[in-house]
Amino acid sequence: MTLLSTTLNAVGLIFLTHAVYSTHEHTTTFPSAPLPLDITVELLFSTLVLSAGIVFASPSLKPIQWSRWAGKIEREGRQSEGTWTREGEEVLDEGDPYAFLGLDGGIGGKGEGRRGFWDVRGKRQEYAEWVKSGGKN
Amino acid sequence: MNEERELAISPIVHSSVQHNSQVVSNIRNLTASLFGVAAGTLGLESYPGFLFYLVGTLIVSSLIFAFRTDGKPTEYFHQPLGDLWGGDVFSGLSGFVLTWTLFYGLVRA
């Protein structure tokens, strides 16, 4: 996308500069004559190409509904924003706001999936089994 | 009341709303100056110039609609009519008039 937008912007700027220069030359040579059609067409074409380039160069929009937004983060993870800090670190976009809870650790894993959460019943059962087995290991 | 319930069921991410409106206002400001260059070079005066600006913003809005929102503006804007099609149209007008008069003076006068 960046290559496309850069190309569109470059082409549009060249045509725009040429069209404005041609208009300037034309009006200084024939002050009262109307603008020729080819210059008008070139000007409008370059404007259209440049505005398309500006739209393509803009960062992509983010979904506003929480479910869609969170689903996108879940699916794609944290993405680069296309900018880097002066130290050379990549700037990432926002991630899952509940990641600090560590809920993902509990899915299919042995962990409890929540930091600071203690499964009391599970521990009690473990203790009961340990007592039943005669306090070995 | 109905909308409140709707928002309680499917909440809205404010940072995304802010980001989207900033992107739209950025595009509007850049393209407004561009349309000013074109209008001044074409030598438009008075109402045709403003009409040119309105047509240009409509084209830019449809470009955003087609390529940035993929034809689904409700996913990215709370009120598509106000935020996408009419968003920041009048804040770009001052930039438009600035470059319009500048290029009219440089090229035409």
From TrEMBL, chain A:
Bilayer disposition of the protein: Multi-pass membrane protein
Location of this chain's protein in the cell: Endomembrane system
One GO biological process term: protein folding in endoplasmic reticulum
Superkingdom of the source species: Eukaryota
Any one cellular-component term (Gene Ontology): EMC complex
Coiled-coil annotated residue ranges, if any: none
Pfam families per record: MMgT (PF10270)
Record field: transmembrane: 43-61
Keywords assigned: Membrane, Transmembrane, Transmembrane helix
Similarity-based family: Belongs to the membrane magnesium transporter (TC 1.A.67) family.
Entry protein name: Magnesium transporter
UniProtKB/TrEMBL annotation, chain B:
Protein localization: Endoplasmic reticulum membrane
Pfam families: EMC6 (PF07019)
Keyword S-adenosyl-L-methionine: no
Segments crossing the lipid bilayer: 50-69, 89-107
UniProt entry keywords in alphabetical sequence: Endoplasmic reticulum, Membrane, Transmembrane, Transmembrane helix
GO terms under biological process: autophagosome assembly; protein folding in endoplasmic reticulum
Membrane topology: Multi-pass membrane protein
Keyword Endoplasmic reticulum in annotation: yes
InterPro entries, alphabetized: Emc6, EMC6-like
Highest taxon, organism lineage: Eukaryota
Major localization class: endoplasmic reticulum
One cellular-component annotation, GO: EMC complex
Entry's family note: Belongs to the EMC6 family.
Protein name: ER membrane protein complex subunit 6
Organism of origin: Clohesyomyces aquaticus
